[in-house]
Amino acid sequence: MSKIKETSTNFANKQALADECSEAYAANIIGGQWALVICSWLIGGKLRFGELKKKLPNITERMLTLQLRKLEENKIVKRTVYTEVPPRVEYELTPIGYELKPIIKHLEKWGQKHKDLM
Amino acid sequence: MSKIKETSTNFANKQALADECSEAYAANIIGGQWALVICSWLIGGKLRFGELKKKLPNITERMLTLQLRKLEENKIVKRTVYTEVPPRVEYELTPIGYELKPIIKHLEKWGQKHKDLM
DNA sequence: GACATTACTTACATTTTTTATAGTACGTTA
DNA sequence: TAACGTACTATAAAAAATGTAAGTAATGTC
């Protein structure tokens, strides 16, 4: 993750693609190793940082943070901080994030079918 | 693209995720900068290498080759070579590839909606 | 006062993906 | 005989994504 370099060809290509293809735009948002899986867990309801971490096998705290930040930036998840000690932070899907549900379910079915085929 | 290093943590994580989450498995297959867009063009019917290239703004021949190879390997597209000179190669979706259509359409709609929101 | 808890942050290393550029094979056509 | 068109391959380099390891803040408990 980290910052994307706005002078790179890659950046320009992503932009151009996203501009004319909404599915590429969408793919940019929910792409990445963990984004979809995080969303699919959040479909079941709010989860804390630590709970998510437990559900995602082997994810590092860094990656989880980065992905959640990206999802938050894209208004897919909402982050709520409770100023307690130790801190408590809850994540939940926004309405548009929740609208990914049918897509995720469909992808899941497709993936299963594809797996059987291979 | 190129080869993925089977000893890396990243490889192990992808495996583990794909094993238990079919949506992550699916994401691995149709992930990458161009895969979805290529598929979405192929939904309209067979296309030659050169035709695809024209439709994809700025893609390099190398990337197009790599993505098509990956899609072929995953049985999403079928490659037909006509041994003529100059050569002619046609790409088309397989049945399972074609089943991505509703997902792509759905993603497209979602992407459009999301775009409006931002 | 040391320690545990939680959700991070930071610096750095490695791996993977993408881009850049040049070159190839091969009959056909000029 | 030399250039042309097509669908590639080879090699290198840049950029992006992911992983490793350590550290932080605040406070309540031992």
From TrEMBL, chains A, B:
Keyword field contains Isomerase: no
Location of the HTH hxlR-type domain: 21-118
Cleaved signal peptide residues: none
Chain segments annotated as transmembrane: none
Keywords: DNA-binding, Transcription, Transcription regulation
Record has 4Fe-4S as a keyword: no
GO molecular function terms listed in the Swiss-Prot or TrEMBL record: DNA binding
Pfam family, one: HxlR
Protein name: Transcriptional regulator, HxlR family
Species this protein is from: Chitinophaga ginsengisegetis
